[in-house]
Amino acid sequence: MSLTMEAILQQARPVLPVLVIEDVGSALALAQALHAGGIRVLEVTLRTPRALEAVSIIRRELPDLIVGAGTLIHAEQFLEARDAGAQFAVSPGCTERLALAAENVQMPYLPGVLTPSEVLLALEYGYRSLKLFPANGTGSVKMLKSLKGPFTGIRFCPTGGINVDNLLTFLRLPNVACVGGTWIAPADLVKARAWDQITQLASEACSLAASLDAPR
Ligand code: 3PG
């Protein structure tokens, strides 16, 4: 069954971890630690030399997780990501070439936007689930509120500058599907192989959001 980006973000709520995997030997343990903390979807950024290998390993060993490839900034990377087993792709911005590349490989795609014109560009290609990047602080909360009016039905995943302190402010917005971020798997903890602490960060975020999302 093929997934839609909308369904993937729904699964990802509250947090889509943005992973920078320097040591491919740690990929599986890192994904397991996040999974144990309640994470169901993650994004491996193609910022490190063996990131695609990390995608394949996590996909093979943890079939319950949904694994995407992030930081796609060249059209050719879409095919590479798909061949490595990535189930969706994420970019920090959106260009016509990237939007077409995603369409060509038929992969769910989360393009990045920061302005109404960029939302319109993404919409022209049929993308209605968008990454708001960089979402730094209160300015982005105001912007998301403003975007709600003209862009009915568009769902955002604000990323960049999100942490446990501002997580709920974003998740409360009706046009926010989930948030993304690296804070949940910080480089120092990954390097130290502090898997329990990473599990704790994930479960802290999930519990916070559960209080928000619980039926009233
Ligand atoms: C991304 O690529 O989405 C960002 O690097 C994540 O930003 P953060 O480190 O502030 O979470």
TrEMBL record:
<dbReference type="InterPro" id="IPR000887">
    <property type="entry name" value="Aldlse_KDPG_KHG"/>
</dbReference>
<comment type="similarity">
    <text>Belongs to the KHG/KDPG aldolase family.</text>
</comment>
<comment type="pathway">
    <text>Carbohydrate acid metabolism; 2-dehydro-3-deoxy-D-gluconate degradation; D-glyceraldehyde 3-phosphate and pyruvate from 2-dehydro-3-deoxy-D-gluconate: step 2/2.</text>
</comment>
<keyword id="KW-0119">Carbohydrate metabolism</keyword>
<protein>
    <recommendedName>
        <fullName>2-dehydro-3-deoxy-phosphogluconate aldolase</fullName>
        <ecNumber>4.1.2.14</ecNumber>
    </recommendedName>
</protein>
<dbReference type="InterPro" id="IPR013785">
    <property type="entry name" value="Aldolase_TIM"/>
</dbReference>
<dbReference type="GO" id="GO:0008675">
    <property type="term" value="F:2-dehydro-3-deoxy-phosphogluconate aldolase activity"/>
</dbReference>
<keyword id="KW-0704">Schiff base</keyword>
<dbReference type="InterPro" id="IPR031338">
    <property type="entry name" value="KDPG/KHG_AS_2"/>
</dbReference>
<keyword id="KW-0456">Lyase</keyword>
<dbReference type="InterPro" id="IPR031337">
    <property type="entry name" value="KDPG/KHG_AS_1"/>
</dbReference>
<dbReference type="Pfam" id="PF01081">
    <property type="entry name" value="Aldolase"/>
</dbReference>
<comment type="subunit">
    <text>Homotrimer.</text>
</comment>
